[in-house]
């Protein structure tokens, strides 16, 4: 995947002339040439060992210990290299939960992810949105022992200063292609999604605000250039999305690429792989094959350590200035999938394993602690197409918790509904990314399996009309099915994350996928005449638009995450101090044994003459979904299995 940035005519003509003449590489260059390799990790989420704590089993598809082997090999291949991390490091696995909730982080303590990263000599990092999940003090204590600097230009303290330095200049000496030493100044600037002030309002309100990513870049990049930066690398914990820029975008990397002075963009947040990935096809300004955003080199290195991002730059010095003449981008994986099985490409780095082994072992003890039992299997293999016990358990626990909390409040007489989503439903997480808990003991690891995020409980007061629109937004997970076309049609929209597929327990309804989705992927009203939600009832009666309800949800959704109608922070009437996960655990401890039952409270209308298909994990064959009939059709790519819904 090779391209060039032709900023001057001499570069435009020189490369072609050298190729035609058969001259040695860089013979066309007027000045020194430095080959610089830039490496990225992103969205590690405290995945260090190649281990899945939810399944309590090894996993060759994850782990910084494996990525570290790629780093070592990549450095050996290049004369000059820099290593950056793009955020979301301290939250996202049971190891992270163990540190936060059991071990604790005092000032001066060494967080295990930081201990692992310190062995790899990172040059710089930035903040991800999940860095704020445990509060500012925990964040600052966690990063305090890092042997690498952290930059972030768009998170602002109440005194007007940035939470961390907005940018820095790395003074480095590199070896050029002639063997001479060259001094370069590499500017580094970082960004986080501005939505953190909504998603973690309880931790940030009155303490931290954010500004738009592009606005922050335009404010600070000129200062970087004034400081003498020869090239500028943007650590952008934000994804790649098209469309017109309106400001405040969560996924703003493509818009950031238009900012003059930024040369290289490291992206993340979406948990995708770039270059490559069908998610980025047909987006204007994106070349998913070459790995460019508006012509500038960019990379997104998957998630949980699955890939190492690489951008190889050929820098040419002309007129006392360094310019990018050519580049190559790559997302290098730690594993292959052969015969539908994950096969490791590299071994773990011993230094990383040694740095974290004690915390890994302590985490295993922590997650194996029992809290109760389940009388039925709890799995999520069919959670996107039918009522599901794993989602029902969360909804039941939330409603139980809130009913007790509000029993003496002014809202005690309002009906309580409960919204929950299937977090582990395959998708970009892979064919094994499903909850699958057998009947028997339930341990702490199962709580984290059922509910993977450290969200806290919120209650919103909404109308019947808002409940309906909430469900319409959720139903955007389905592609539009065309009965007139007939034949086989994919049901699931791969761009729609499972965590935005809210099921609301306490009401009954059907979803008609032959209608257009009322809302687009970003949550904007797109088809005002379309209505997918049918036969919406409460207590056996149609819901009135002005009927009042309490809906239990989480801080992310209630604060505006996912752009759901009725959820913008203004409808919140109760903020619980407890994590949703802890509420589920209390519910199980109280009940001693649970038996969540999918009772068919929602279903998909199946049109005649169409074969609606979806993919799930291979272990789904052991189960049958509730309220719907499905049949296995065969294998699908990446280890998944294809099913069809039978009418």
UniProtKB/TrEMBL annotation:
InterPro entries named in the record: 5'-Nucleotdase_C, 5'-Nucleotdase_C_sf, 5'-Nucleotdase_CS, 5_nucleotidase/apyrase, Calcineurin-like_PHP, CpdB_N, Metallo-depent_PP-like, TAT_signal
Gene Ontology BP annotations: nucleotide catabolic process
One Pfam match: 5_nucleotid_C
Cellular localization per UniProt: Cell envelope
Residue ranges constituting the Calcineurin-like phosphoesterase domain according to the UniProt record: 36-271
GO terms for cellular component: outer membrane-bounded periplasmic space
Superkingdom classification of source: Bacteria
Span of domain 5'-Nucleotidase C-terminal: 385-565
Predominant location: other
Entries under Gene3D superfamilies matching the protein: 3.60.21.10, 5'-Nucleotidase, C-terminal domain (3.90.780.10)
Required cofactor(s): a divalent metal cation
The reaction(s) this protein catalyses: a ribonucleoside 3'-phosphate + H2O = a ribonucleoside + phosphate; a nucleoside 2',3'-cyclic phosphate + H2O = a nucleoside 3'-phosphate + H(+)
Signal peptide extent: 1-29
Keyword annotations: Hydrolase, Metal-binding, Multifunctional enzyme, Nucleotide-binding, Signal
GO terms assigned for molecular function: 2',3'-cyclic-nucleotide 2'-phosphodiesterase activity; 3'-nucleotidase activity; metal ion binding; nucleotide binding
Annotated family: Belongs to the 5'-nucleotidase family.
PANTHER family on file: 2',3'-CYCLIC-NUCLEOTIDE 2'-PHOSPHODIESTERASE_3'-NUCLEOTIDASE (PTHR11575:SF6), 5'-NUCLEOTIDASE-RELATED (PTHR11575)
The protein's name: Bifunctional 2',3'-cyclic-nucleotide 2'-phosphodiesterase/3'-nucleotidase
Species annotation: Microvirga makkahensis
